[in-house]
Amino acid sequence: MNTPMDTVFIRGLEIPTLIGVAEWERQVEQLVVINLELATDITPAAAGDDLREALDYSVVSKRLREFIGASTFQLIETLAERTAQVILDEFPVRRLRLELVKPRPNSGGHTVGIIIERGAAAE
Ligand SMILES: Nc1nc2c(c(=O)[nH]1)N=C([C@H](O)[C@@H](O)CO)CN2
Description:
This is 7,8-dihydroneopterin aldolase. The chain is α+β, with helices and mostly antiparallel strands.
């Protein structure tokens, strides 16, 4: 039987970071919001009811805060791509879908963002 492809997700993770092209954006941090779906096999964790066997969303969130919080990219494309690579390199994740939202509170309320999918193709 194929290994199951399950999903651990993180939604609405707000992280302050330096992001943007405009001069003012190089001076002040803005919040970005991360929504992340991580394809993994949850059956070992479920079988033993054991966090050590799980893809720990707290550890992933902490790593996201660390990486994104310290980043200074201009484009949300670059930030999304590099963030996806960190997750795939450091965690047992086969595939991910990353949504990165830049709320832009002074723009009349509309948000902008990017969605990428990276990793092994779905079976
Ligand atoms: N596709 C993108 N378009 C734009 C980006 C971006 O990162 N990706 N960034 C900007 C500016 O930073 C804008 O938010 C403020 O001038 C514009 N378009």
